[in-house]
């Protein structure tokens, strides 16, 4: 298994954004890049062929969910996630910590790990750094995440300090529990909430462990966007320039642009696929809720500036009809478009970095999308 490596191609002269390329055992992709989320080994309603056609190159899956269903042993017997789901691009698995905190009740966090209830069956479960690594090694993703605690927002400084110190100890245990040399695919996750001193402490601890890549966790957990941007302003400079930086859980168009400007290389979020399943689309002129009666006889595409398969072949009226009738094909069309929209946006961000004009691009995009509207 080869190491995960990062190539810094250039930095935008107008902003702190960087154009790069990440190499994994299943190919390489340019950054900044958006990663569609496929929690249960499927990007909901999309086939691998459609993901490939839209330009997806790396997708996410989830340790916690696949541990519960179908069980990492079955995925391992299938030869790992790539063959199980017939996806030949890169895969990143999140470590389960966040999902336990966001999905399950009866959580008991101890030094050893986290006791909680299975959110489906209610049975009591226990997840530790070692268990999270054993599951991820069975799943066989190209990039795995260290097991961390993502504290709620807001959290007291005292609690956050104890949590950061435990997450750093857990990161050490993940390195020991990793079946591969640590440069083969294990990213550390920096925590620390909105506290600069704790983000510095977490970054110092984790960069001393020399991971091949670093995620910024503990954001996109309900904090205002200006808090997220402020945390990024003082956190990304703490991370090595020659390694990928991954902002977890971020995927609205404005945050993808603002995160790229602050030196982030990789993003993931359920937003585009989740809102698609209730008929909401991202377009170059802002959000469009296709179920709205005004589209009943609107035979234009979802987005007249989009050249995706959905926009080239289907109208708002038809997609509205399907969504109102709860027809699965309608949600496949909105999902395809939303993912294509974000993947295309990241291509425009990379182009703007090449041309040293990401700041200008931000103004143009925000104006047209309506982010500047009071
Ligand atoms: N907003 C998010 C989303 C996913 C996360 N996953 C992990 N492991 N840790 C975090 O802090 C996350 C935050
Ligand atoms: Zn489209």
Give a written overview of the molecule:
With 374 residues, this protein is α/β, with parallel strands linked by helices. 41% of the residues lie in helices and 18% in strands. The protein has 15 helices and 16 strands. The strands form four sheets. The protein has an eight-stranded parallel β-sheet. Strands 1-2-3 form a three-stranded antiparallel β-sheet. Strands 7-8-9 form a three-stranded antiparallel β-sheet. It is globular and about 60 Å long. The chain starts with a strand and ends in a 5-residue tail after the last helix. Bound molecules: 2,6-diamino-3H-quinazolin-4-one (DQU) and zinc ion. 2,6-diamino-3H-quinazolin-4-one binds at residues 94-95, 97-98, 145, 148, 150, 189, 217-221, 248-249.
Radius of gyration: 20 Å
Instruction: Give the averaged pLDDT, no decimals.
Output: 96
Strand content: 15-25%
**Straight-line N-to-C gap:** 51 Å
Number of helices: 15
Catalogue the ligands: 2,6-diamino-3H-quinazolin-4-one, zinc ion
Please tally the β strands and state the result.
16
- Judging from the principal axes of the Cα atoms, what is the shape? globular
> Helical content, roughly?
40-55%
Protein structure class: alpha/beta
Strand order of the largest sheet: 4-14-13-12-11-10-6-5
Low-confidence stretches: none
């Amino acid at each position: 298994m080869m190491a995960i490596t990062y190539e810094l191609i250039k930095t935008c002269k107008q902003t702190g954004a960087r154009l790069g390329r990440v190499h994994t055992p299943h190919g390489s992709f340019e950054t900044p890049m958006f990663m569609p989320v496929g929690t249960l080994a499927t990007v909901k309603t999309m086939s691998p062929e459609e993901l490939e056609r839209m330009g997806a190159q790396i997708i996410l899956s989830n340790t916690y969910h696949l541990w519960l269903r179908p069980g990492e042993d079955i995925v391992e017997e299938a030869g790992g996630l790539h063959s199980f789901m017939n996806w030949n691009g890169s895969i990143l698995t999140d470590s389960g910590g966040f999902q336990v905190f966001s999905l399950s009740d009866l959580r008991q966090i101890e030094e050893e790990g986290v006791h909680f209830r299975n959110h489906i069956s209610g049975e009591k479960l226990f997840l530790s750094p070692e268990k999270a690594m054993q599951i991820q090694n069975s799943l066989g993703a190209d990039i795995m995440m260290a097991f961390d605690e993502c504290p709620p927002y807001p959290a007291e400084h005292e609690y956050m300090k104890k949590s950061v110190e435990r997450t750093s100890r857990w990161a050490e245990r993940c390195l020991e529990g990793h079946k591969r040399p640590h440069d083969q695919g294990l990213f550390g996750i920096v925590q620390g909430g909105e506290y600069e001193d704790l983000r510095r402490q977490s970054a110092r601890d984790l960069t001393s462990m020399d991971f091949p890549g670093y995620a910024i966790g503990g954001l996109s957990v309900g904090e205002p966007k200006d808090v997220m941007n402020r945390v990024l302003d003082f956190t990304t400079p703490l991370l090595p320039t020659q390694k990928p930086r991954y902002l977890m859980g971020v995927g609205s168009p404005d945050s993808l642009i603002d995160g790229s400007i602050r030196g982030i290389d990789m993003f993931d979020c359920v937003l585009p696929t989740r809102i698609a399943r209730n008929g909401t689309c991202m377009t170059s002129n802002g959000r469009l809720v296709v179920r709205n009666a005004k589209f009943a006889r609107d035979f234009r595409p979802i987005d007249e500036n989009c050249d995706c398969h959905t926009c080239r072949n289907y109208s708002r009226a038809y997609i509205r009809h399907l969504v109102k009738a709860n027809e699965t094909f309608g949600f496949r069309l909105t999902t395809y478009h939303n993912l294509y929209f974000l993947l295309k946006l990241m291509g425009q961000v990379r182009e703007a970095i090449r041309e040293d004009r990401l700041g200008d691009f931000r103004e143009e995009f925000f104006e047209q999308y309506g982010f500047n509207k009071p």
